[in-house]
Amino acid sequence: MLKQIVALVILSIAISLTMPYTQQAIQLLLHAHNWISQILTDVFAGGQTGKLIKNLIALLSIPMLLGLLFTICYWIVRRHWFPYFMETVWIIWLIQAGALIVIYQSAA
Fold it and tell me: What's this model's pTM, rounded to 2 decimal places?
């Protein structure tokens, strides 16, 4: 438990010191999500089902693509499968979903 508290404090300090870069990374993530969503708007119908499928694909594509990018880089260096693929996808998904929820709440 002490290790987790120390890790939390260290990560909080790191985020506080790198806040401008973190904000740019989150804005880039949201911009990529909006770009994929805009492209998918041309593909799917404007009904409720089409909107649901478009949002689902847009929400899942970026974490999966970034996870695959990390996996490919890891494979090039180590020549075996990246052991934390799904954990990486979940972390990216949680960051993206949290940012989208904050943006949605402030827009409403």
Answer: 0.80
